[in-house]
Amino acid sequence: MGSDIKIASSVLAALISKNLSNVSQEEVDKCVDLILSSRDKKIFVMGAGRSGLVGRAFALRLLHLGYEVHILGETLMPSVSKGDLVIAISGSGSTKLVMTAVEAAKYVGAMVIGITSYLDSPLGKIADFVLQVKGRVMPTTEADGRDYFARQILGLHEPLAPLGTLFEDTCMVLLDAMIPVMMKKLGLNEKDLGRRHATVEY
Q1: What percent of the chain has pLDDT over 90?
Q2: Which residue is catalytic, options 158, 168, 190, 201?
């Protein structure tokens, strides 16, 4: 790995860690409880672009935990019903595709968890519960003397973490970290998850 990439990855990892430390433990616990209480319901994961990819990764783990989980936009996605759980991921909280689906889900009586950086966004306002994950952590010290790549990733100069990267990376780590907690609460181990993993792969 080149030295520039090492610097970039180290600073980004530090920013993700800092961002995670600012996430409310109470909100995380509530999010986990809502998912655990939806064991007998359908779960729909919604996100666009890179947030959608993060959502897909989380949905796969929920499948491994034994949930009936579906992804927005999939051809085989069933209809959302009253009492189902929708997990909508949008850093801006205003992604049109996600909001259209969330509004439809709310109309039929689904429970919506919104994961966003902005509480006052359309998603933040319509969701039944919001897990706030901020998209950027601004530095508290002056940039003078900082390494060029560190300054870029910190957002001080044409960031190397553009267009919500910090939000998406933080969500990926945070949602992955929820899985072992849910495994413990559900009394499952890695072998249990492995039984639900795809056995036909390319």
Answers
A1: 62
A2: 168
